[in-house]
Amino acid sequence: MTRVQTPRKRRANGVESRQRILEATVEIAGERGYEGTSIAAVSAKCGLPASSIYWHFKDKDDLIAAVIERSFETWLAAVELPGEAAGTPLERITVMAAHVARSLIDAPDFLRLGLMLALERRPAEPRGRTVFLQVRDIAGQKITEMARTLFPDLDEDAVRILSTYAVAGADGLFVHREIHGDAVDLVAMFELHAQLVHDAASRLASSGKG
To answer: Alpha helix locations (H) across 119-206?
Structure first.
């Protein structure tokens, strides 16, 4: 007797298959980079035929872009600026920095893969690179909004400088951990970075940029 799947069951199976494909892609791309990632390798890793992968994703580039988007959504959901009850601006930015660090440890894929793509130049720009630059812009806007909230006395030029410094420093710390592994306490490094960002905001304010 043939068992007929209900629409709900088919949707559930489709979601599960998509997650398996994305998780396999994360592992392979993390080990081999963009160039070393292939549909065949993802198929072997997740145990699903290539036809199933192509049913969900147009090509490898579409697949990598989906990995970046999913990881970024996970990261974004984990990052929130603590409310004023959490303490002074320094205390709030330090707590937020720790949240960012933990979220990057738990969901590093959008930044890891995105930085790989962002640093490469190809005649035809991969969609994954475009998606990364778009989500990075969203992250930058979020940091800028936080800077305005925490340091209301700074003018827009100072907020832009501070946000750029904060993002660039975070990138550097993430890359440093990627090179040296778990020996780097990313949470402690981000907390220190937050304190330096706070000090930079104070200097900008005192230099007349506030």
So the answer is: 127-150, 156-180, 186-204
DSSP string, 167-185: HHHHHHHHHHHHHHGGGS-
In percent, the amount of the chain with pLDDT more than 70 equals 90
Query: Which residue is associated with the tokens 């035809």?
Result: 124
* pTM of the complete model: 0.79
Element (H, E) at 75: helix 60-78
The torsion region of residue 95 among left (phi > 0), alpha (psi -120 to 50) and beta comes to alpha
Q: In the chain, what are the helix, strand and coil shares in percent, each to the nearest 5?
A: 80, 0, 20
CB 167 within 8 A of CB 140: yes
Q: What is the pLDDT of residues 127-159, one digit of tens each?
A: 888 888 888 888 889 889 989 999 999 999 999
Confidence of residue 169 (pLDDT cuts 50, 70, 90): very high
Domains and CATH numbers, the chain: 1-57 (1.10.10.60), 61-209 (1.10.357.10)
Burial string for 67-103 (b: 16+ CB within 10 Å, else e) reads bbbbbbeebbeebebeeeeeeebbebbbbbbbbbbeb
